[in-house]
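User: I'm writing a tutorial on reading structure tokens. Could you give me a worked example: one chain, its sequence, then its tokens, then a sentence or two explaining what the tokens reveal?
Assistant: Sure. Here is the example chain.
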Amino acid sequence: MQAINNWRAAMGESFHVVSPQALTLRGYAEMMGQWFGEPAVLEFAGWEQWRTTVSPEEAQATWDHIAHSPNCSIAKAQRLLGYQPRYTSLQGVQEAVTWLIDQGIVQYRSGIGPLLQP
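And here are its predicted structure tokens:
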């Protein structure tokens, strides 16, 4: 909407639309654990070991994410368009997870955490 409302500034430009702060995978797991009222139980595993614990598709998607090490900034959109994100990283994920729980796609049990429905 900001690009449409400021089309002269947006014309010919590209913008990242991301959260204003970075979040590590460990930080993400710890914060979501807190949100669910459960401690994050984390254990380091090297890539070769970890990839055997997920499907080949999940391993490839994770590798693509790690290998490309995405780093995006909203500074340009803020400067040219006055863009301000509606959500923090965690707020967006929490809203999405809440919707999944409400729809019965994910089930949550205290002490066990979120579980995908078969």
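What the tokens reveal: The two ends are 37 Å apart (CA to CA). The longest strand covers residues 106-109.
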